[in-house]
Amino acid sequence: DADVTQTPRNRITKTGKRIMLECSQTKGHDRMYWYRQDPGLGLRLIYYSFDVKDINKGEISDGYSVSRQAQAKFSLSLESAIPNQTALYFCATSDYTGLAGIVGELFFGEGSRLTVL
Amino acid sequence: AQSVTQPDIHITVSEGASLELRCNYSYGATPYLFWYVQSPGQGLQLLLKYFSGDTLVQGIKGFEAEFKRSQSSFNLRKPSVHWSDAAEYFCAVTGGGNKLTFGTGTQLKVEL
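ok -> C-alpha cells follow
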C-alpha cells in the first residue's frame, strides 16, 4: 500500500458542487500539505498543517478549505467548485527537518485529477 | 521573495547521452534546494537535495546536482540517460517561512 493515499483519483463535477478530496498517510509525519499542479505553472501550495490544531493558508487558498481530522488524515474541500479549479491536486507529507521554517523532503500521493465542468 | 526558474520547458536527448537540466533560483540568504521527478501518472519523488556542505550532491537513479552560489544555479546532471528517465523534473527552493517554491518543470523525452 502507498504511504500517502488520495481519494478519489479522478473526479468530474459541475460548477457549484461541493467536492472533498481526501488524503491519508502511514508515514507517521505530523506535517501535511495540499498542492495544486497546473501545466506550465508547477506546483502551488494551497494549505498546510503541522498538527491537528495547526492549519495554515498557502499561496492560493481562496476557494478552498481543509480539515485535519487526525494526524494521518487531511482533507481538502471546494465549497462551490468553479471551472478554473480544474487541476491535478497532490497531498504530501514531511517530517520536521530540525531547521525552523525549512520544509524537508516531501512524500507525495499519486494525485487527484479534478475536472469542473 | 524566493523564486525558481527552469528555462527549458522541454528537452529531448538520446538514450545513453548526457543530460543537464538547468535551474536558477532567487533568494537572498542561504537556500535549501531540491530536485524532484514526476513520472507519468505518479506523484513527485525526491531525487536529491542540498542543505549544506559539499556543493556537488549525489542523488538516486544516478543523478547529481551542483550548487553554484555565484551563479544562483542548481543544475541537475546525469552522465548517461536511460529510457526510463523520461519524466518531468522540478527544481524547488526553500529558505524559511515553511514555504517550498517549485519551478515550472522541465519535460524530458528520451529517444531510443
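The two ends of chain A are 32 Å apart (CA to CA).
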